[in-house]
Amino acid sequence: MTPLDAPSATTPATAARDAEPILVFQHVALGFDGKLILNDISFTMEHGETRILLGPAGCGKSLLLKLANGLLAPDSGTVRLFGKDLRSVLRDDLYSLRANTGMVFQEGALFDSLSVRENVAYRLREENRDEELIEAKVREVLQFVELEHAIDLLPSQISGGMRRRVAIARAIITQPALLLYDSPTGGLDPITSTTIIDLIVKERDVFGGTSLLVTHRLQDAFTLATHAFNATTQQMERIPNRGLAPNTKFLVLNNTRIVFDGGLEDLLRSTDPFLQAFLA
Amino acid sequence: MELEPGAFVKEKILRVQEYALLSAAGVGNLFRRPLYVADIFAQADLIGIGSLPIVILTGFFTGAVLALQSAYTLSQFGAKSITGELVSLSMIRELGPVLTGLMVSGRNASGMASELGSMQVTEQIDAMRALGTDPIKKLVTPRIVSTIVMLFFLTIVADTVGILGGGVVSAAMLGIGPSQYFHASIDILRYPDVLQGMVKPIFSGFIIATIGCFYGMTTKGGTQGVGRSTTQAVVASSVFIIALDFIVSRFMIGAFGR
User: Fold this and answer.
1) ipTM for the complex?
2) Is B233 a domain residue?
3) Core-most of A25, A235, B91, B114, by most CB within 10 Å?
4) From CA B64, how far away is CA B39, in angstroms rounded?
5) DSSP 8-state secondary structure symbol assigned to residue A114
6) Which long-range contacts (CB under 8 A, 24 or more apart) does B8-17 make?
7) In a domain, B218, yes or no
8) CB contact, 8 Å: A111 with chain B?
9) What span, in angstroms and rounded, lies between the C-alpha atoms of B247 and B225?
10) Rounded distance, CA B40 to CA A123, Å?
């Protein structure tokens, strides 16, 4: 897939690439109705990193994702995206920043009155791109997720797994600097889940993008850390000699706080009772 | 869970503030790029052309029944000949704008609330934000513009068809000649009457679109929440249309003396 010459994709994100981390959380707290959901959340994501966010259901993983691209504002603390404090950016600038992130929602969140083609092309149309370029890019990205045959269908006419793949295609069409995946395999059968993880690994290893992925399926998280995409065989394969994917790290949330931030080996060696019970 | 009076009032005030901010942003976006012209035309088609049949039918039968009822009362004072004047004035100053507003409210405030509400509960609006699009600019502003513009023209259609309906009944059932009816209908009208009838749909259109979008954009609670938003949007917009009709009428009568 050739990179787009997107002006919006080259502004804040690329400029920030070398100088600033892609995403920084500093002492972030968020609550609803007087109840604290996230407290003192601090972590940094560098360019090219894949961070897998784990934690029990309802611990605020999806909220953290929405804080990352400014869909939610924290009660306190700072979120810096592409080097910019999201609290201090103007509304229009926030939309420009978001245009450099891609987000795959839990249920896909496809526009149900638009066809697969229109869904995937959405961002390019917003940027008033040439129709020929849009058609070519849409077909290319649908080929990437192996759904070119579904181009004219409506979201209601395709399966749940296909909808997630369309959502991935929509998110990656402009090759954003940061990809946010909210439980991309949630509610899917194991075979379809593997297909989705395969795509995420492929996206990570082919484009080398930065991504933050929420999941509560440990097997998906471990697959991401232990597998890589083989460009020769065009398949996801286990990294030889028990190797681990570089720059793929874990973040574990529990009881409003981050209880682990590090690599897979450290996670598995942890003596923390919660982590041991969570991983058991 | 029952809210305490203080919390209840605070919640209502916050809702009003939220509505005011959404409306202000919806109007303010007219002066900020990009302006979604294609969406404005799509909504104009949906609201304007789509509402035409119900507006024509409502207008015609309102004019017809107004002629029928007023002719009976007027004939008791020997004034049946001014039926046309009564129908014309009532339709243009009051019934045309209000009934058209209520019809379009029932059809489109509910449509907007349910469409945007469904998008809200399925995270499509969040997805739009995440894709770098301002949903107020993309979804609310086109609906405000097209509802105001189309309601204005729909009201003119309703007025015309209503007067025509009154004319048909007058000629066919009341023995008033078409020429007499239509002359009386036109002669009685003055500039302030027409102005009053033309100002009201501008306010009604704004109310229908902003309330429909507000309830849609703030929907919570899944499909049940969508149903609740839809009902609330129709009820609130209908009540506000009638209340605002009174305020505008009072102001115009005060300003123009009729």
Assistant:
1) 0.85
2) yes
3) B91
4) 37
5) S
6) B15/B218
7) no
8) yes
9) 32
10) 19
Query: Quick check: B205 and B150 in contact, CB under 8 A?
Result: yes
The answer to whether residue B27 sits within a structural domain is no
Q: Would you state the pLDDT for residue A23?
A: 94
Question: Cα–Cα distance between B251 and B253 in angstroms, integer?
Answer: 6
Q: Please state the separation of Cα A108 from the chain's center in Å.
A: 12
Cβ separation B133–A96 shorter than 8 A: no
Higher pLDDT, A5 or B121: B121
Positions of E strands within chain B: none
How confident is the model over B185-197, as a mean pLDDT? 91
Q: What is the span of the domain harbouring residue B205?
A: 34-105+134-213+224-256
Which of A97, A105, A127, A212 to mutate to test binding with chain B, by most B CBs within 10 Å of its CB?
A: A105
Min Cα–Cα distance to chain B from A56, Å: 22
For each successive 10 residues of chain A (280 residues), what is the average pLDDT?
43 53 94 90 93 91 93 94 90 86 91 95 92 94 91 94 92 92 87 88 88 90 91 88 88 92 90 87
Is CATH 1.10.10.10 correct for A7-279? no
Residues of B with CB under 8 A from a CB of A: 32, 34, 118-119, 122-124, 126-134
Q: Which residues of A touch B127 (CB under 8 A)?
A: 103, 105, 109-111
d(CA B199, CA B196): 5
A114/B contact by beta carbon, under 8 A = no
Q: Is residue B8 part of a domain?
A: no
pLDDT digits (tens, 9 = 90+) for B136-153: 999 999 999 999 999 999
Domain range annotation of chain A? 7-279
Token pair of B105, please?
């409210």
A4, A133, A203 from A136: Cα distances, Å: 11, 5, 19
Reduced to 3 states (helix: H, G, I; strand: E, B; else coil), residue B43 is helix
Q: State whether residue A106 sits within 8 Å of chain B by CB.
A: yes
Q: How many CB pairs under 8 A join A and B?
A: 55
- How many domains are there within chain B? 1
Task: For residues B240 and B243, give the distance between their C-alpha atoms in angstroms, rounded to a whole number.
Answer: 5
| Contact call for B129 and A95, based on CB within 8 A | yes
| Average pLDDT of the segment spanning B168-179 | 91
